[in-house]
Amino acid sequence: MNQASSSATPTTSATDHRNRITGFLSDYGIIVAFIVLCVILSVVSPYFLGVNNLLNVLRQVSINGVLAIGMTFVILTRGIDLSVGSMMAFAAMVAASFAVVDSGMPLIVPLTLGLAAGLALGCVNGVMVARFAIPPFVMTLGMLSMARGLTYIYSDGMPISSLSPSFLWLGQGMVVGIPVPVILFAAVFMLAWFTLRYTTFGRYVYAVGGNPTAARLSGIKVSRITFSVYAISGLLCGLAGLMIAARTSAALPQAGVAYELDAIAAVVIGGTSLAGGKGRIVGTLFGVLIIGVINNGLDLLGVSSFYQQLVKGAIIVVAVMLDRSRLSNT
Amino acid sequence: MNQASSSATPTTSATDHRNRITGFLSDYGIIVAFIVLCVILSVVSPYFLGVNNLLNVLRQVSINGVLAIGMTFVILTRGIDLSVGSMMAFAAMVAASFAVVDSGMPLIVPLTLGLAAGLALGCVNGVMVARFAIPPFVMTLGMLSMARGLTYIYSDGMPISSLSPSFLWLGQGMVVGIPVPVILFAAVFMLAWFTLRYTTFGRYVYAVGGNPTAARLSGIKVSRITFSVYAISGLLCGLAGLMIAARTSAALPQAGVAYELDAIAAVVIGGTSLAGGKGRIVGTLFGVLIIGVINNGLDLLGVSSFYQQLVKGAIIVVAVMLDRSRLSNT
Amino acid sequence: MSTPLLHAEGIAKSFSGVPALTNGQLSLRAGTVHALCGGNGAGKSTLLNVLMGILQRDAGYVQIDGREVNFPSPHDALDTGIAMISQELEPVPDMTVAENIFLGREPRLMGALVDHRRMRLQAEQLLRELELHLPANARLGSLSIADMQMVEIARAISRDARVIIMDEPTSAIGERETELLFAAVERLKARGTGIIYVSHRMNELYRIADDYTIMRDGTFIETGAMADIDRHRLITTVLGKELDEEYAKYNRPGADTLLEVDDYGRGKDFERVSLDLKAGEILGIFGLMGSGRSEFLDALFGAAPAERGSARLRGAPFQPREPGDAMRAGIAYVTEDRKGSGLVMGASIKRNVTLASIPDVARNSLIHEGMEDAVATPFVERLQIKASSLDMPVKQMSGGNQQKVVLAKWLQTQPSILLLDEPTRGVDVGAKREIYAFMSEFARDDRAIIMTSSEIPEVLGMSDRVIVFRKGRISGELHGDELTQENLVRLSS
Amino acid sequence: EDPLRIGAATYGLQGEFMQLWSNALEAHPAVLSGDVEVTVFDGRYDALVQSNQFDSMITRQYDAILFVPIDADACVAPVIKASAAGIPVVGSNTRCNTDQLASFVGSDDVLAGQMVAQQVIDQIGDNGKVVVLEGPIGQSAQIDRGEGIDKVLAENPGIEVLERRTANWSRAEALSLMENWLTAHRDEIGGVIAQNDEMAIGAIQAIIASGRSPNDIAIAGVDGITDALKAVTQEQMATILQDATAQAQGALDVALARLGKADEVPLSDIWERYPELEWAGGEADTYNIPWTLVDQDNVAELLEQRQ
Ligand SMILES: Nc1ncnc2c1ncn2[C@@H]1O[C@H](COP(=O)(O)OP(=O)(O)OP(=O)(O)O)[C@@H](O)[C@H]1O
Ligand SMILES: Nc1ncnc2c1ncn2[C@@H]1O[C@H](COP(=O)(O)OP(=O)(O)OP(=O)(O)O)[C@@H](O)[C@H]1O
Ligand SMILES: O[C@@H]1[C@H](O)[C@H](O)CO[C@H]1O
Ligand SMILES: [Mg+2]
Ligand SMILES: [Mg+2]
Asked: Which keywords has UniProt assigned to this entry (chains A, B) (predicted)?
């Protein structure tokens, strides 16, 4: 609830200490919900707590995680980005087209072009929202459609596969036993956490979402901040595009359909308000993990796919209820 | 922009008259965008303006139209309903199961049960949002999943077809040359328009969305209103479920996937703000029509699958830009 | 005579073709306080918003140090050394006090990082200097309106600006805080800062202003030295008509008890509150900021029900659990935060006036627009609400006029008990008098008013009896001759 | 002895065909007898989801995996991973471009494309105008059936393609699309080549709604879903039956053979139904389940099986 109170001042007394702990829990009720979920899953499935499975979960959430982090920036400014799935697919396609085994391109080329493709589309969103005041929902809905169209046109509707091993490493490689996508996700998370917490840009993102008028009156260039968050989201879609193409060994024209829902869900489950100005990247991390753990757990348990949908929906609601009811008690 | 200013008082002078027209146009800039779109389409396609084609468009938009009207109520209160597609599919399945040719049920049974199925799920959304303060996005995302699961469970994943002719009439019949779904949509539209404009309930909906605190302190039972809009949305999903089953001659478990996007898009394109309290059902009507006309026009023109997405997205953005730029000029 | 620090002339601004300002003019000297006077809707805020680059002028020019300037955005005005406390509070609720104060100019590390520690220390120091007892790391949204206002004041003052615009900075704060502000203003003057000051409280103007400028209907009327204009003439010029500034008080309390409150308490907000309200009475409640007055009124109205104690209304038990309960019992409540809890800002005047009595303008649940107009129109006249039409969204109205709409909304419910929390916030002298006259007329027969106000003259002038709150408890009750400023101050602090 | 645990990774259960496939799996004699336990996964039309589900199945150490991939290339990495973990993967329905599959039991989509196009052309003759309804862009079935359709069209230069668009396997989408095409092309459309039956049925409904008779237009689809069979009885369309039962049960039989259990548990009866299909002890690389053209001769019998 209270996004600012954790910039804690040095305190000494015991009650202050207790306040900080309950404050932490009510700030991060979603962590409690996550822990409860994990405990339940590890009781019902002996496989859940295995190191390999936990790495699986992390690898599985890494793409949604990267998208959700960009989405957090956007939502903090009261915006929304519906186009993440399509932008990701487009970036994947562009990157893959330069990463096929016999293209002979150095790895840097597909990487750069993939990120650039995402960034470019994100900038278009940003300009239209920030400069031409198109409502974010409409602009990014348009982009959802346009980027998908571009993906079809660019790829002629065909998947691109036979990607070079060095490119595939991005999605399938390991570094000191940790999957590369997980490392990428972690790096993006830390950078975003640091940015939102410690940089002036991060503070301005909160201010623009919290009260755009106040932000403007304080001399903040609101439209520049607004533009930036869409650009960031686009850039991260570019990264997610590289990751998904490398992970599935192919860029598919239909990749990422409906991914916006999971990304937004992670952000909202993590306690960031769609009304802007309030929320945290740590919440998003746990939102992403909750969704991932639910999917993984239901798969591990072999719950029938009909009941999966029912159970998945119910767990999401209950997790958030748990979070919110904690809040109202404190 | 100004949701209240059109309830014009009787005026006489010429400038007043002019003001009323420009006021109307800036209130309804989206109508201008719609007209521009229609003019362009009728120039590039000789078929566009045919009576049959226009009836086709109306028939094609009627299901999204009914969903978008329920969505308008929800969004006016600052909410969102992501579960409309799934609730519709569930209602369709329930209705169809009692409408198969050899069930021998009178028509009233599937109709009632279909509507009741939608209403029931909508009430669940309503209770959880209004009473337990689950954020609407999370609750209805959960319902999106849960209602789909229920649909699969209820139908065992198989379509239900061979529906009785009297039931099919709802989707395929005609009355005085007008398709029945169009009549249903028109009736729902008029009722909604009347409700929002002339009834106390309509007022409450706007007030709750405009400033829930002020509404509560003015003695309005905010949670009752909030509950009601989700119930209305559910009920209209029930109706849409009857319509789609009758139109496609079958209830399909996968029906309505991603329909929430089109419904929300219609509302937002129509000028209703996701921030609540501001918007009009007439705007939604034209939002629905714009989406329908774009789809129809691109089909008529034979635009390829690849370019269709690109063009569709671009037109949506441009239409809204046209609307918004009109506003900022006045 | 030296060049003025800031000089503006011929400033015009219209909204959708309707002029709000036709000829704004103002000359500010360095090291002085310049009072900008005018009735509600005279165009003061519009002029100031133009000066600040929030609005773009249609005509006229602005000079700083004799050089013409044009600010496309507040950013540019701030860069040039102009800061503003805007009339409407603009807090970022989910940021801390320190973050709000330093928004846009945070102490930095390595160019792009916020130095949170230094920011907090600087904020603490600033708050200390201003004698504000606010934690620098409290979330702004958890503060009272008054405290938020003080934070905005701190923000503007700490900017080291050469020109500070203060648009009704005291409308939401108490006497003590006002003194803190004035002390700061004196320090700023001494540094050569020029201050443009707007307030509808005449006492304040005579205390701190050096010069004045009067506006009426969007036009400059006259300017001069504060010392050269007496109170009567100032008011008459502002209003454009003869009017004495006085309290129109002619209600007469009866003997019947209307409302009895016994041992009310809720959380830490207030406790052991017992009082009664007589028919025909205007009961004042006075206290410092944060003394729990508003919370007590919230409880009486059922907005945040009391947790302890009981109440009786006309002898019958009265236990409001939600506002509807209190409304049915004939209670109306004008809250102190019109933007947050009083108005639907995007909705029209008409709809706001009828907001709390929608069923009254409906038959069989159908709104009757004719009745709605009939309901709203008399208030526009009665309260001198300045608006181009009843369909104007309230967010386009001047602040004082918005306040009148809130009053109208509650009067329309035809209550028998009125709870008024800072009822004249931002209201001009003319309309204040109307409101006072109305209050006196209202509190008759079996009707009564409970009023809180931070303006001591208003409390003394209008109340038949005053109950003083201190830290959530009643610290005393004053009647008749005891009703003096000294007693109020003594009991409240 | 514990039952064998087999995971079935389908590309998605939203649609009748894959539902028939999974139902057939559950109806396999070895499953009914309790010798085998199957878990069906819904891939939600997403290669990434399928890949994640493989991870879970590997963690749970399923004995074998039946795999209906969404994409012929994106399926490769999961298959390699499962094989490396010692889990045999048997492909079904949709091919996968890897030699690591234990075997593939499915039908040739290119052939289906050829057959469905040929059906329509046989009816309208050498000269005529057709429209083509395609699956979701980029899915293997869409690409391969499209290839087959193209082949036949290339051999028939007299056939003009008026329109060719995706309706995403969806009846509702095809219905609207066809309504609009009927407006733009009035009475020109002589045939509808649909890459699956759902879309063909949407087209039929649009044709009926426009006041025309589907009997006058040559329509064909792929799959043999129940509504299509009914339409065949009314001579409204032709369909090419894709035998979901054979694909599913055949794949399970082969998987059991690879696990060395073929002799212990009962095999399905599909091997009797298609005498031309060589069982070969479950050792073959590919089992090509034949497509069956549904016509008046066999439709009644097929409908009967659906009850
Ligand atoms: N955005 C707007 N759109 C239309 N009219 C506006 C807008 N802003 C202000 N006005 C009009 O301009 C006039 C002047 O308003 P302004 O806020 O400047 O008055 P003010 O002198 O500050 O009054 P107060 O003392 O009540 O604050 C008012 O009649 C108001 O309705
Ligand atoms: N013990 C407390 N702990 C924390 N916050 C407090 C405490 N007491 C008061 N406050 C803050 O001060 C506010 C109380 O102010 P309130 O509006 O009730 O006082 P008031 O007497 O009406 O004064 P005014 O309206 O003039 O500010 C509360 O909203 C709360 O945020
Ligand atoms: O083979 C199946 C069916 O044709 C179905 O209708 C769509 O997906 C394809 O892969
Ligand atoms: Mg003002
Ligand atoms: Mg108060």
From this structure: Cell inner membrane, Cell membrane, Membrane, Transmembrane, Transmembrane helix, Transport
